[in-house]
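Hey, I'm writing a tutorial for new members on how sequence and structure tokens pair up, and I'd like a real worked example in the thread rather than a made-up one. If someone can provide the structure for the chain below, I'll link this post from the tutorial.
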Amino acid sequence: MKILNDFQLKQRKYMPVFAKATGKPTIYIEGYPCEDKAPMPATEFHGMQMHTLFDQFLRYFQADANIHVGMDNFIYYHEGDLRKVVAPDVYVVLGASRYPLRRSFYTWAEGVVPTVVFEFLSDATGAEDRNEKVAVYLQDIGVSEYFIHQPDMERPIEFRGWRRSQVGAITEIVPDVDSGLFSESLNLYFRWETQQETQIRLLRPYLPDGTPITTSTEEHQLRLEEHQLRLEERQLRLEEHQLRMEEHQLRIAAEGRANAAETLASEEAHRRREVEAELERLRAQLANAADSDIS
């Protein structure tokens, strides 16, 4: 678990700092629709990108119960006006409670607006996402940062972001040499990578030090690999223990043989002394007998 434990330490280090929302979690307000009558379908490219980023955010921000992550649901941002509504692909609200799950998000009831919004470009909504929605999200709603990305590899590369300053000025975020963008609000770095197997230009989040936030599949694989590593280490320890036991038994056997040899030598020396003593006794008897005959 070393890799995962190291990541958790970094996660606490880099988690953004924010104020708690002034409102309360609101599941549903009567009169505000929470579903489209004729929802627009998304391609599998967009669907996989949305679900992957949502899953990464959901697992990463679970470290703080006051961070809400939403995906493809309505955000109402002006009480009483049903026209003031958007449905971003993925968004993060710093300060809002993670649970309960909402049917829609109502900014006036929650007392906070989304912090960062992500839209993934499609042929149907791309023009609106890269133009009108910049002002809607950053000016009308008050979102801090807004990002757009094209996950379909058959379409031109497009990954852009905008940021709203404290005085309301909107500036486009300048990419680095790797075409990545940094979110000051989330304290995360974003860069896309090509997924050849799925043909997706996948946008991925990274910690400021470059550590990637894994997908569920990658984390599961890491857990399997670490579990396998622990099994191998355990097997190695068992083998080392077995070797030590065998060495101990060999030492005992060697010591036993040495003790047996020493005992045998001692017994032989004792018998030799007994024989020598008996011989001396017999010689003495013979000498006495000879002296008696002479006399």
